[in-house]
Amino acid sequence: MKYDKSEFVFSQCTATCIDEICEIQDETFESLSDNTDILRRNSREMLLECLCEPHYTIGAYHNGKLAGFAVLYVLGTGTENIGKDIGIAESELNTVANIKLVIVRPEYRGNGLQKKLTEKLENEAKNKGYKVLCLTVSPDNIYSRRNVESAGYVFHSQKLKYDNLLRNIYYKYI
């Protein structure tokens, strides 16, 4: 269903949002019953970590209900920093952040929320001094691929990641 853009309020999610975030992830996996490889399931503990510094989670709210959320994940030189996959030097990895996850509830899809949430993460990353944003998308997720490409992310390569899931790797200098 289409909603007026002015009906959405964007604000940082905190630990008090964890139940609703887990609910959205569960709803999304239920809606992907035929291809659950499109998304990597995150544990409650991991999602809770995403709600704390240095990470940043933004939510899109509609009439007080969390319609979707997106996570900026900061790894420094950690093993899952996607900057490593695109050849960023070890000494520069602290300038790279990952967009770990963007999920919009099924009933709110088609309202441009994935793009808007990504844009909000980009602004936050710039404010925190990051120079590069990286993310992965399942090659089967046509909607996310279109959204990230239209937002200026550049395809780098395809790689098996996250317990053997095939992913397209994208990056953007911000």
Word description of this protein:
With 174 residues, the protein is of the alpha+beta class. The protein has four helices and seven strands, in the order βααβββαβαββ. It has a seven-stranded mixed sheet.
Give the topology.
Elements: E1 8-12, H1 18-31, H2 44-50, E2 56-62, E3 65-73, E4 96-104, H3 113-127, E5 132-137, H4 142-150, E6 154-161, E7 165-173
Key features of this structure:
single chain; 174 residues; alpha+beta; seven-stranded mixed beta sheet; 4 helices
Provide a short characterization of the protein structure.
This protein is α+β, with helices and mostly antiparallel strands and 174 residues long. 26% of the residues lie in helices and 30% in strands.
What fraction of residues sit in β-strands?
25-35%
Number of strand segments: 7
How much is the radius of gyration in Å?
A: 15 Å
| Helical coverage, percent range | 25-40%
Main sheet strand line-up: 1-2-3-4-5-7-6
H/I helix tally: 4
Distance between the termini: 32 Å
- State mean pLDDT (0 to 100 scale): 94
Low-confidence stretches: none
Shape: globular
Structural class: alpha+beta
Largest sheet: 7 strands, mixed
- What's the SSE pattern? EHHEEEHEHEE
